[in-house]
Design a protein that fits this description.
Blueprint: H1 2-15, E1 25-32, E2 35-42, H2 43-55, H3 62-74, H4 81-88, H5 90-93, H6 97-105, H7 113-130, E3 144-146, H8 148-154, E4 159-161, E5 174-177
Antiparallel strand pairs: 1-2, 3-5, 4-5
């Protein structure tokens, strides 16, 4: 299974650069009910599924999530944004029960109109980000995010950064700069 992911990610890099805006399609690894399979989809679809999985309808988190993942991808030569998102997001990695299954199946059926609205908003943010038109609300310093419990338990030396893109609406995720202790 791991080999298939590496092959699919390598093909993605061979077919196009995930960081370039536009309609180019690349190959990505995607978790499906029967295991791993390669799927061709636009990068904005992968990013929108990521946003729905990590922040659901909390759009105030969307810009910070995208910029944090871009910084993580940029920190490793040859690593694409798509590979970073697919390797980092718990819902896209196969966790999260029924909700995780729904996120991985997007843009499939929407149980209610609210979910359609959430998906449309996530797509808009992803496309705006890929065009280079989405400001970074984190002042270019975050390299990690997680739940408040995740931060307290796994990253006690982290420096919390406020990253909401909507004044008066705090993020549901905690964005931070992970301090590396030597």
């Amino acid at each position: 299974m791991f080999l298939l992911i590496l092959v699919a990610l390598g093909l993605g890099r061979a077919l196009g650069d995930d960081r370039l805006p536009g309609p180019s399609r690349t190959v990505s690894a995607r978790l499906a009910a029967g295991g791993q399979r390669a799927v061709v989809e636009p990068l904005y679809v992968t990013l929108a599924r990521f946003l729905c999985g990590e922040a659901d309808h909390h759009a105030q988190d969307y810009a910070a999530l995208l910029w944090t993942m871009q910084r993580r991808a940029d920190a490793v030569p040859g690593l694409t944004l798509r590979a970073t998102v697919l390797g980092y997001s718990m819902p896209l990695l196969g966790h999260g029960g029924a909700r995780g299954e729904w996120v991985r199946a997007l843009p499939g059926e929407f149980p209610t109109r609210v979910y359609r609205t959430t998906w449309d908003r996530a797509v808009k943010y992803a496309q705006t980000f890929l065009r280079g038109e989405l400001p970074d609300p984190c002042a270019s310093v975050t390299n990690h995010f997680g739940s408040p419990a995740d931060m307290a338990i796994n990253y006690p030396n982290a420096v919390h950064i406020e990253c909401s893109s909507m004044p008066g609406k705090p993020t549901v995720n905690v964005f931070f700069l992970e301090q590396v202790l030597h």
